[in-house]
Design goal:
The protein is an all-alpha fold and 120 residues long. It has five helices and no strands. 80% of the residues lie in helices and 0% in strands. It starts with a helix and ends with a helix.
Length: 120
């Protein structure tokens, strides 16, 4: 079970680090070609979403890697699952076709949370 937790945590971390850095480090206009939904949000909101994704990505891997407060890995994964539920709502309202990606990320986050809480 530990190997599965590491693999899913690493995958989730890589995906959210990439997405979060892109949103935080780039302007809304630069992000919009890859992420059309940002047109519905203010630039500050896009940066805030990116910051939440970065914190979640770090929270999923750092407590696990350091052994310091390992319960935070599960808490961060639950937070990322909430982010994905919100993303699903936005994408459904916009009629976008990215739902399989959002569902996959939601399932990864739920898996990390379940694996982390199961090993406590």
């Amino acid at each position: 079970m530990t190997v599965a937790l590491w693999i899913t945590s690493a995958l989730l971390t890589m995906i959210y680090l990439l997405a979060g850095v892109m949103k935080v480090a780039s302007s809304k206009e630069a992000v919009q070609p890859q992420m059309a939904y940002v047109e519905d949000f203010a630039a500050g909101q896009v940066k805030a979403i990116g910051a939440v994704e970065l914190l979640g990505a770090l929270g999923v891997i750092l407590p696990l890697a350091t052994g310091i407060a390992p319960v935070l890995t599960g808490v961060a994964a639950v937070g990322l699952a909430v982010v994905q539920v919100a993303a699903l709502v936005v994408h459904v309202r916009r009629g976008e076709k990215s739902l399989p990606v959002n569902i996959a990320l939601l399932l990864l986050a739920v898996a990390v949370a379940a694996l982390r809480f199961a090993t406590l």
